[in-house]
Write a structure and sequence with these properties.
Low-confidence stretches: 2-6, 9-14, 283-287
Number of strands: 8
Radius of gyration: 17 Å
Structural class: alpha/beta
CATH topology: TIM Barrel
Distance between the termini: 37 Å
Shape: globular
Mean pLDDT: 92
Order of helices and strands: EHEHEHEHEHEHEHEHH
CATH class: Alpha Beta
Strand content: 5-15%
Strand order of the largest sheet: 4-5-6-7-8
């Protein structure tokens, strides 16, 4: 996973209206600094604001993308909120010296979270031992700074549980983003004091078991995300994902829980504000 990775392109057609006007949303995981947005980033931000997205975490995958996320914070007047971390698929996790800048940024008071970090056994680019060592550095940094941690997990839930378990009772806070686990995984994640990030994959027709697992997440631990530019939700699947599409995921999650989209949007926004200590402004009214 690198900033140059390109997902499906967005057709150059007219912007679509928000699926649920008036929602108050936070996209807790995007890669807004990736070059997939270079041609129309300002328009992407404008569409997200129109859809009711009050804030958007610009999640880092290495030191350069963390610096880019900080720049986006300035460019968007604080709407994009940066993190600092090294993704487990990045070769930088094999070099402890590469973590020095992440450490400095996390202690600077300019980022809202440590990450993304975690474990990934789907790809074999980075040895598991190196991933675990990097994850350990990130978790210790999160505890030392009092920041929440953003955790990636793909085909590695038992290994992640073991790694996180070493810090049980230590006050760890954070989120397992783009959750793809089981109800049993929800149980240990909640016990560990973590939140669950719900993204576009939960809307895919074939993922009924995943939706059932997400149903076990208590309201107070739910977060919404896009993982933009990846994994666009239905009915946008196949297009480049963007923060505005978090409204579609909110609608799907509301339907699964028998709730109104506005209620799901509000409770997940409150959760995001509390976890990441966000200060958000009201959404801009339509032009």
């Amino acid at each position: 996973m690198t900033p140059s990775t390109r997902p499906p392109s967005r057709p150059r057609d007219a912007p679509e209206p928000p699926p649920e006007p008036g929602l108050r949303l936070v996209d807790t995981h995007s890669h807004l600094g990736f070059d997939a947005f270079d041609e129309d980033r300002a328009d992407v931000v404008a569409r997200a604001r129109l859809a009711g997205v009050l804030a958007c975490l610009a999640v880092a995958v290495d030191a350069p993308s963390a610096r880019r996320a900080l720049a986006l914070q300035d460019e968007t007047g604080g709407w994009a909120v940066p993190t600092a971390g090294i993704h487990p698929n990045e070769q930088a996790v094999t070099t402890p010296d590469a973590f020095a800048e992440i450490d400095d940024l996390a202690r600077s008071g300019r980022v809202c979270a440590v990450g993304e970090t975690g474990l990934d056994l789907y790809w074999d680019d980075v040895p598991l031992a190196a991933q675990v060592a990097s994850l350990d550095r990130h978790l210790r940094l999160a505890l030392d700074t009092g920041l929440p941690v953003v955790l990636h997990c793909r085909d590695a839930f038992p290994e992640l549980r073991e790694a996180v378990g070493h810090f049980a009772g230590g006050g760890l806070r954070g989120v397992v983003h783009c959750f793809t686990g089981t109800a049993a995984d929800v149980e240990w994640i909640i016990e560990a004091g973590l939140h669950v990030g719900v993204g576009g994959v939960t809307t895919f027709k074939a993922n009924g078991a995943l939706r059932e697992a997400v149903g076990h997440v208590p309201d107070e631990r739910l977060l919404l995300e896009t993982d933009a530019p990846f994994l666009a939700p239905m009915p946008m699947r196949g297009r480049r994902n963007e923060p505005a599409f978090v409204a579609h995921t909110a609608g799907h999650l509301a339907a699964e829980r028998g709730r109104e989209p506005a209620e799901i949007a509000e409770l997940t926004t409150v959760n995001a504000q509390e976890l990441f200590r966000l200060e958000v402004s009201p959404p801009r009214p339509p032009a």
